[in-house]
Amino acid sequence: MLKPLLAAIKRSAVVWSTACTAVAFTAATFTTVAINSHAAIPAGGEDPVKPLTEVADLRYGVALYHYYQKDYFNALTELQMAEFQGGIQGHGVNPKIIEGGISLAFGMQTTAGHIFNTLLDSEQSAQAHNTAWFYLAKLAYMRGYWSDAQSYLDKLDPETMGQAMRDEAESIAINLLIRTENYSEAIERVDQLPKEFPNWGFLHYNLASAYGRQQRYEDAILYYEPVYDKPVTTASADPDVALALQDRARTAAGYSLLATGNYFRAYNTFNQVRLEGGQANQALLGSGWAAFNQNKLNQALAPWQELLRRDSVSPEVQEAQLAIPYAYEKLGAIGEALLAYSNAETAYEQELGRISEAREQLNSANLLEILGLTASGNSSWLEGVEPDTAGVINYLHKLIAQNQFQAQTQRLRDLQGMKDRLDSWQQKLDNYEELTQARVAFRIAQRENIEQLDYPAIMKALYEQQWQLQNEIDRISTQKDYLAFTEQAQKALTERAENALALSQELAEEIPAEQAEKAQLLYGLLYWQQAQNYHANLYQAQGNLATVNAEIKQMGEAYDRVRGLVDNADDLAPMAGRLAAMQSRVAGEQAQLDGTMSKLSDELTATLLTELNGQQARVNFFLAEARLAVARLYDGRALSPEDAPISDGISGEGTQ
User: Fewer beta carbons under 10 A from the terminal one: N or C of the chain?
Assistant: First the structure.
């Protein structure tokens, strides 16, 4: 049967404190110095948020550009490529610190640890060692190695630390005291913190939650109260975060007050939680129980009825569906109670149907699509994962809030991002292979063209013609052959005149002297005309010969260049071999990545299904209680304390 109401509320307070602490630890640890807030602290110890104003190495400048654009993948790629090409000059250990910080942000803890340990092994400045110890402390804290984290913090020199690093180190140190249950020293250090301290609220909250886990509710309340009593203004560092933390603190304090029986204060505390915030449902449920325990049943009904107007997937809404008819019974409104129990029974049955559909979706759909997460090269393990709130995820809020689940989800998202990049690289390699093949084909075509044109034979014929032309011009110049440049028609006319003159001389005694003189005059006139143009024609012929000689020389040189390019061009075979090797490597990594993603996806799906089974068990429990209540009312049995609609662990689950 059901447990008494008060015991259930106490268990709720314990579970609430445990669930909320994990979230608070994450926020407190990485609020001030996170990689997505310029976490790489320069070796000089200056504040990490102060950007560099001078860049001595272009490669480092490119890496910084991507870094401050929050494009961490490309920033890390630039740093590693720079190191492969000889390193970055002029910036000391800053590039390695940034590389370590980015590696830490991507969850590459082993790589980050190696980088910082290498810095410690080298002869660097005290400030550089200080930075390395700081990051190693953060790394050990992330891994849960409390003693190692403390030993690294002990090696820090506060005198050489920037203020941001000093504040963050103090936050980690106090959280370590809380983790190791050294509460007296944690209290002493928390009480000494000024309210302006960056993680002041988170540290108080964490200490209070630790007390809540030990069921020391009075002590927990003492440290919850300062969190929500501290005024939040528009001048606050992050008003939205501060208000959300105050809502959490009020809700946790309210359940602690319920556990101590201080229902009046609990009621007032719950009612100060914002209705539009993430803790509204838990606060409304707690407010109802606080009023109920003061016998203010009408006041209890108000927040529970408000819950009914909200999404029925919420455990608080489901609990309210059972608590409302229970309050009606206490008021003696049996008819209203019976109707409310019947409505709750219908709602639970519908919810079971939706859970069944969600289970089918989990078994058949892509997990990244279900989670509503997209792969991003800029994703950081120090940033929160924000899954979609639709569909299956409606049933998994408690699971999603857990750091372990977020880490697994982040891994899956990063793996998907790596897969997208590998697919992109594979496509680029295919394109490069096509280009290489095209270059090979073009080179073969060039060689074939050269062979088909038979350049040696062409050049030999040209040189022979050049030699003949040169000899002819030399003969004309030597012999003063005025008629050599005569055009064909003029040359034919001159030859006729020459023949006529010769004939007249041969028949001088047989023809009139006047006719012989005419023949001699015609020949002399034609000869004189050719003699007049001889020197100009000879000069032009020599100029043309020089032009021909230059063109033949250029043609020969061009032929030699083309032949040299074809014969002496880079061998494409090694490039083709490298491309083939890279394609094989990428294909192997794709296969390995697919296997890893499949395994992780199966693990996450199993975790989600387990959570769905828990949700189904809770709804089945509420359904059984509603049916029993209906049967009891029809049977006319009186209400007993054991019929309170709260069970062992159920309310606690709802408050997470």
Answer: N
